Amino acid sequence: MRSNVNLWWILSGFFLVVTIMYTVWNIGAHPDAPWYDGIEWVGSVALLFATLMSALIAFYIGRVHNAQGGELPEDVLTSDIDDGDPELGEFSPWSWWPIVLALAASFGMIGLAVGTWMFPIGLAIFVVAIVGWVYEYYRGYFAR
């Protein structure tokens, strides 16, 4: 986790340097205009926001690292792979419902982009898919 924090701070510093270089380069590319008209605002603001977002992630991961009260097994050089292998939950490798959910999401997005008549179709497929996925273990071959 410590290495992740360091990588995010390095990335934040890199974005800050690139933001400054990009802004100065644009001002230098337009010597006849005032400095505020020489800045290409979209790129400068986007790079500044990338700096702020990576700093936010670095700050958050640093706070989580300080609050966890110890090192993760991934950070200890003498740990085994099994030390950092927690139980993540129960997943159905045979389930087709995530694919149906992806189809519903694609119908919804295409409905928003192309024609609003497709959005209710995507919403109906979503309702069927989410109910099917939630109640997958309550009926059929895998019922308990």
Q: Which descriptors would you attach to this protein?
A:
144 residues; flat; single chain; mainly alpha
Beta percentage is under 5%
Count of runs of 4 or more consecutive helical residues? 5
Q: Mind describing the biggest β-sheet?
A: none
Mean pLDDT: 88
Instruction: Give the overall form.
Output: flat
- Compute the number of strand runs: 0
Question: What string gives the helices and strands in order?
Answer: HHHHH
Classification by helices and strands: mainly alpha
Q: Which percent bin holds the helix content?
A: 55-70%
Poorly predicted ranges: none
**CA radius of gyration:** 25 Å
Amino-to-carboxy terminus distance: 40 Å
What is the number of independent domains? 2
What does this protein structure show overall?
By secondary structure, the chain is mainly alpha-helical. The chain has two domains: 2-75; 97-142. It is 64% helix and 0% strand. It has five helices and no strands. The two termini are 40 Å apart. The model has no long low-confidence stretch (mean pLDDT 88).
